[in-house]
Each structure stands twice: as C-alpha cells, then as structure tokens.
Amino acid sequence: MSTMDSSNQYTCIELHYSDNMAVVTLNRPDRLNAYTPTMGNELVDVFRRCERDDEIKAIVVTGSGRAFCSGADSACLQRLRQPANEFQSGNEPLIGTEEFLTGFCSELYHYPKPTIAAINGIAVGIGVTMTLPFDIRLASRSSLLKLPFREIGVMPGLGSTMLLPGLVGVARAKSLFWRGASITPKEAESMGLVEKVFGDDNFLQSVIGFCRELLPADTEFTASVKRAINAGALDGTIENAHALEQKFAQILLQRRATS
C-alpha cells in the first residue's frame, strides 16, 4: 500500500488505492465529469506524484457516476468566445493554457508505469482524446464514445491526430474525426480503440482484476517493453525496433546482475 496521502486534496478528481494501483476518479458527476483546466492541472499533479511513489505500479483513471468525461465544460468553452475586453479571469484558468493540454500528452505517452483508462460511461471529445496516450483503454457495456470536434469547430488535441490513426488506422481515424459519429463499446473494441469491454456491474473491480494480470514482479521489464514499443510506434523501422530491444535487454541484464 502506498504511503502517499489519499485524502481528498483535489476538487475535480479523487485518488484512492487498490493494492499497488492508484485509482484516479474524475469527480464532477453533476457535470458528467466535464473537463476543466483545474481538472487538467490536478491530473498532471497526481500523475507526477504517482510516478515518484515506488509502491504504485500502475494508474487507473475512471469517472464518477454515469459518465467518464462528457467533454470540455461548456462554461470554459464560452469564455473562449468572449471578446478580450469582456474577459473575466476568475479562479479558473483559460482552457487551453493549462499544462495538461499544452504539453502533458507526451509525458503521459512516455509515462514509465502502465496507464489504464477505465471508460465507465459517456466519453465525449477530450473525454476520448485524453485516453489515447494511455497504454490501455477498457470500457463498460453502457459506455459511448464520441468525437464531436467538427460540430464545435475545435481542433482535436493531446496528440490524437497521431495516436488515433495508430490505434484504428489512418482512414478510419479521418472518418471518425470528420463524421463525429458515436462509437459503441462493441465498435470501439472491434476497431482496436479499446482493449476489452466489461459489464456494468462491478466494472471497476473487473478493471482492477484485468490490470493485476498486466503487472509482473519485474517492473523494469514492463517499463522497458513500453519504451521500446512506444519508440517503435513513433519511428517504425525494424532496424530501430531491434536496436531498442537490444538496448533494453542489456539494461535488464545489468539490473539483474546487480540486484
């Protein structure tokens, strides 16, 4: 069990633990967990804290209530449309200026521990794209995914224009963005957008059970495989893949020799 404080020190997310996994819950159920810059800042903070904690072997992110994340909060989007002379700063940063949207996607993609998105319900816009840098996406039977960027006239972000084609193929990624169609969990699973669909009853427990199978005792092995696969996906030549495999194989051998 991690010694990290799991008391609710956040306003938009909650943190608790299951064995050696951190479970982060998007916690604005009255707004269907709509994304705000504050939520983004809190996610950046909790991921970095979990990275520093050696007791935590994986991070699961899910949503409170019947939604995973219903997209960007409408009030935050409305502020973007205000004329500069009418802009009220308030306590909430202007959406798009927070680190979660300006650069954290690369850090999340290369995160050294396994990251799992447990999509428990509605996921819209950023509620989908925020999961793409994760290692694995799991969905409940009642979940529904949608990419409505065409409707709202906003460019998809968080590296999704690279990550989505890598998961579902170039042509399908274009079609999904252009059409903005809803994606059922069965469709998401068949196209490779989610790894597995679980029933709604005890969904999180099913996710935790699935994640336990991913975590071998040798955490350096898990991290090395992840780094090699991610690097190959970004620079996909067999020569580079083989070189990285050799590099990480030597690192693993050296670690075992000195342990």
Brief write-up:
This protein has 259 residues and is of the alpha/beta class. It is built from 12 helices and 10 strands.
Key attributes of the depicted protein:
259 residues; alpha/beta; 2-enoyl-CoA Hydratase, Chain A, domain 1; 2 domains; six-stranded mixed sheet; four-stranded mixed sheet; 12 helices; 10 strands; 16% strand; globular
Note down, in words, how this protein is organized.
This protein is an alpha/beta fold and 259 residues long. It has 2 domains: 13-212, 2-enoyl-CoA Hydratase, Chain A, domain 1 (Alpha-Beta Complex); 219-258. Helix content is 44%, strand content 16%. It is built from 12 helices and 10 strands. The strands form 2 sheets. The protein has a 6-stranded mixed β-sheet with strand order 1-2-3-5-7-10, with helices on both faces. A 4-stranded mixed β-sheet has the order 4-6-8-9. Strand 1 (13-18) and strand 2 form a beta hairpin. Helix 7 (160-168) crosses helix 8 and helix 11 packs antiparallel against helix 12 (238-258). The chain is globular and about 60 Å long. The relative contact order is 0.11. The mean pLDDT is 87.
Strand order of the largest sheet: 1-2-3-5-7-10
Approximate helicity band? 40-55%
Kindly give the count of domains.
2
Q: In this structure, how is the largest beta sheet organized?
A: 6 strands, mixed
Assembly state here?
A: single chain
What fold name goes in the CATH topology slot of the largest domain? 2-enoyl-CoA Hydratase, Chain A, domain 1
Average pLDDT, all residues:
87
* Beta-strand residue fraction: 15-25%
Succession of helices and strands: EEHEEHHHEEHEEHHHEHEHHH
How far apart are the termini? 23 Å
Shape: globular
Number of strands: 10
Reported CATH architecture of the largest domain: Alpha-Beta Complex
Instruction: Tell me the Rg in angstroms.
Output: 19 Å
- By helix and strand content, what is the structural category? alpha/beta
CATH class of the largest domain: Alpha Beta
Unreliable segments of 5+ consecutive residues: none
Looking at CATH, the homologous superfamily of the largest domain is: 2-enoyl-CoA Hydratase, Chain A, domain 1
Total of DSSP H or I helical runs spanning 4+ residues: 12
